[in-house]
């Protein structure tokens, strides 16, 4: 069955200053999904916008395999004080039981989480940087530039994950 998830996230930006770090959502994410190909639940799945398939992995490169999932939509809204993301992920899912723990799979895995990435460019050092936010982190988090320590964003709300179909 084809399933669709909506992932939403929002970062609060500091008041405008003299120099902008040009924050932007990177077009990649990691998502927990139940994978019928390897027969395991709660697998970390790596997705990149524009790729026709994802990668399911358990933690080491030897257990990675292609996964039937892709980013179907990646919409960003920037306001003066907010950086907002709405992403849509399409994936194939079928009922199965986990081959190791014997628990049933679910269209939206039992403990869903997502990790999203934000990139920026420091205007002082002219170097790029990035940070991530994920749904199972403690909040709020104040992100600062790794090069000049300027405030970048406040991560006050967990990204949302919603099964659409």
Present the secondary structure layout.
Layout: E1 2-12, E2 24-35, E3 40-48, E4 54-57, E5 65-67, E6 69-78, E7 82-92, E8 114-121, E9 128-134, E10 141-144, E11 151-155, E12 160-163
Antiparallel strand pairs: 1-7, 1-12, 2-3, 2-8, 3-4, 4-5, 6-7, 8-9, 10-11
Entry summary:
With 165 residues, this protein is an all-beta fold. The chain is 0% helix and 53% strand.
Comma- or semicolon-separated keywords:
single chain; mainly beta; 4-stranded antiparallel β-sheet
Please describe what this structure looks like.
With about 160 residues, the chain is mainly beta. It has one domain (about 1-165). It is built from no helices and twelve strands. Strands 5-4-3-2-8-9 form a six-stranded antiparallel beta sheet, with no helix packed on it. Strands 6-7-1-12 form a four-stranded antiparallel beta sheet, with no helix packed on it. β2 and β3 (about 40-50) form a beta hairpin. The protein is elongated, with a radius of gyration of 17 Å. The mean pLDDT is about 95.
């Amino acid at each position: 069955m084809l399933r669709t998830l909506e992932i939403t996230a929002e970062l609060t930006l500091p008041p405008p200053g003299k120099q902008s770090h040009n924050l932007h959502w990177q077009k990649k994410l990691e998502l927990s999904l139940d994978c019928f190909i390897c027969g395991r639940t709660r697998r970390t799945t790596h997705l990149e916008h524009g790729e026709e398939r994802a990668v399911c992995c358990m933690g080491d490169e030897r257990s990675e395999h292609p996964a039937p999932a892709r980013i179907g939509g990646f919409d960003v809204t920037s306001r003066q004080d907010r950086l907002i993301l709405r992403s849509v992920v399409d994936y194939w899912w079928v009922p199965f039981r986990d081959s190791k723990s014997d628990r049933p799979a679910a269209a939206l895995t039992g403990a869903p989480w997502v990790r999203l990435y934000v990139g920026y460019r420091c205007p002082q050092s002219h170097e790029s940087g990035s940070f991530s936010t994920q749904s199972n982190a403690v909040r709020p988090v104040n992100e600062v530039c790794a090069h000049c320590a300027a405030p970048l964003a406040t991560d006050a709300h967990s990204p949302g994950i919603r099964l659409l179909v």
